[in-house]
Description:
By secondary structure, the chain is an alpha+beta fold. It is about 30% helix and about 25% strand. It has a four-stranded antiparallel beta sheet, with helices on one face. Strand 3 and strand 4 (about 85-95) form a beta hairpin.
Amino acid sequence: AQHWVGPEMLDARPAPAADLVHILSPFDPLVLQRKRLQLIFGYEHRFEAYVPKAKRVYGYFALPVLVGDEIVAAVDLKTDREQQKLLVQQWTWIDNRSRRAHKKLIEEALHRFERFQLAR
């Protein structure tokens, strides 16, 4: 089967799904392609596990957070399996827009992420 799109679709910009939140791994293909990530989202991710602690900006194992079509934060998480908790080591906002609305969405996503991480 052939796949094609009309020229008018190339110029169309769909509305972003503003309420979709993705907590991305630093090894996610979207994040690994640093130049593409910078070009599309204006965000430069640094994997800082090998960076001396004093020089880290986002944290040891920071996960970029995509809300809608923007990288809005990076959260450095640690799973405490003994206590059955997901610990936020550091939360860094990438921009200053809509923090209050994004914070609630991200916290909800973190609860889902915690349930997934700690599932037996």
